[in-house]
Amino acid sequence: MEGDRKVELSEALALGPGWRHACHALLYAPDPRKLFGRIPMRFAVLMQMRFDGRLGFPGGFVDAQDSCLEDGLNRELREELGDAVSAFRVERSDYQSSRIAARPRVVAHFYAKRLTLEQLQAVEARAPLAKDHGLEVLGLVRVPLYIMRDGEGGLPAFLENSFIGAAREQLLEALRDLKLLDPGTVAKLKIPDSK
Ligand code: GTP
Ligand code: MN
Ligand code: MN
Ligand code: MN
Ligand code: MN
Ligand code: MN
Question: Taking CB atoms and a 6 Å cutoff, what residues make up the pocket around ligand 1?
Answer without folding.
Answer: 22, 24, 56-57, 59-61, 76, 106, 108, 136, 164-167, 170
